[in-house]
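Course assignment 3, question 2. Fill in each field.
Student: A.L.
Task: Predict the tertiary structure for the chain below.
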Amino acid sequence: MTHAHPTPETPQVTVRGEGRLEVEPELARIAVAVTARGADRAGVLADLTRRNTEVLDLIKARGAAMSKLETGGFSVAPERPRRGKGEARVHRGHVRVTVELTDFTVLGELVPELADREQTEVNGPWWELRPDSPAYAEARRLAVTEAVRRARAYAEALDTSLGSLLELSDAGAGEQGAFRRGGFYPAAASFADEDAGGAPSLDLEPQRQEVTAEVVARFTMLPPAL
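Answer field:
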């Protein structure tokens, strides 16, 4: 039998519990932007298509290390003169691709190869956890454990003990955890290794992810002897 309202015979205690842990990331995302520019619209489109195909082939060659590949935007448009109303003499095209990888060694090899290509920019990486990562469940377990510990401490301070659990709810703080982003940017991601004849491997240090969960728990207590 539960009691919605506390009474002298069934006092209640309500506490918050927080679980917090740091874990290694499980995914890394990078964004690749390929551009082309020229006076002939058809030529710009042909260059852009070729470069995009080469980038996609380079990424797909990583096989199982790639968990997701998406094209996020594409455009070919004339560049209008900044002054006057003359006809556009130059066309610019760009296509953006987002890649999600699970093998960070492959990531360190792929990034310089992409950044070394003509008119190609690379941004990232953004470190993340999988949506179904066990880290989220572990953070919630820690939050519940902390809530029980705190409630028991209050009861013991009154020289009594907990009775039953009335309610347990998610406090809404960090249901899916929190993650920190970081990485390199285009200006720092241009590589050339003349001695090796190609782009070198890049040593990337994954950023640990902070995952938090918070719960609110309500318990009954045995009547204390005050």
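Instructor remarks: Confidence is low (pLDDT under 50) at residues 173-196. The chain is about 25% helix and 35% strand.
Grade: pending
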